[in-house]
Design a protein that fits this description.
Helix content is about 35%, strand content about 25%. The protein is α+β, with helices and mostly antiparallel strands.
Length: about 150
């Protein structure tokens, strides 16, 4: 988590955002994932959050024990948010939500779809909850070694 924060902190600072980490000490540490791919998932989610959050906003990376051998990692922002239809579009590769708020942000439209594919390849799930002008929370659930042993 700290490596991901270091990689994104400069962009957050440049954008005038507060970037925080809220790590629950009870969160299991033994994730059953490829460390490089997990880092890529988090960097994609943090990059999107920073990109779509106006100056003065907040991006929070948090972890918690999700029970039964699972860990939940969330990236929450106070950004522009999305409708349910926008979320569906944003989850498609090479697609971006096309409105006046988002069009000013350049990108390939691969951040969320790639994070979802990488998460699912590790046996996890990716969920998005968002509302226009209220922000977005993306939660990734990944298994620990205990989940696979069960």
């Amino acid at each position: 988590l700290l490596d991901c924060r270091r990689l994104i902190q400069g962009r957050a600072d440049d954008a005038g955002l507060t970037l925080t980490i809220d790590k629950d000490p009870a969160t299991p540490q033994n994730l059953h994932v490829d460390a490089i791919k997990a880092k890529q998932i988090l960097i994609n989610l943090l990059s999107n959050a920073v990109k779509y959050t106006p100056a003065g906003g907040t991006v929070t990376l948090s972890t918690r024990d999700a029970g039964a051998g699972w860990v939940a990692i969330s990236v929450a922002d106070t950004g522009i948010g999305m409708t349910a239809e926008d979320i569906e579009l944003a989850m498609q590769p090479f697609r971006q939500v096309d409105n006046s708020l988002t069009r000013k942000h350049q990108g390939t439209g691969l951040g969320l779809p790639l994070a979802k594919v990488l998460t699912e390849r590790h046996g996890g799930t990716l969920d998005v909850v968002s509302a226009p002008k209220k922000g977005t929370v993306v939660t990734v659930r990944l298994p620990t070694a205990a989940a696979l042993a069960a």
